[in-house]
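Practice problem: predict the structure.
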Amino acid sequence: MKSAERVTAKAVISVLNQLSVDGVIRNDDYSDIVSEDISDVWGRGVMAFEYKLAPAALLTDLDQFKSAFKHGLVEYSKENYFDHADVKKNKSIFIISDSWLLDDVVHFDVAFLINQTTIEYVNDLRKLK
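Answer:
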């Protein structure tokens, strides 16, 4: 679990830093962003992690952030040679499985599609939407 969390954090940090350069989020150093394991909510073996951005971090709306972040995850996956059965369908081994604003804080979950449990979790979420 911890290694999946580190791999996911590396991807998230890379994408956030690129989004800050691109003007989607405030220009800041995101290398110390902390994730929260959400497997206690969704079940053991789910490789998904919640991240939070400071209230003033968004320079766009949430939908634009989510779209840019999704694109960044696709590019990160391509550049880092991630290959997995579900990558062809999703175009990335990492996906945003959820995002929301709460008290002006951006929350987003990133799933690392490395095992069947996580893939099933993401598919279940899609059915709910």
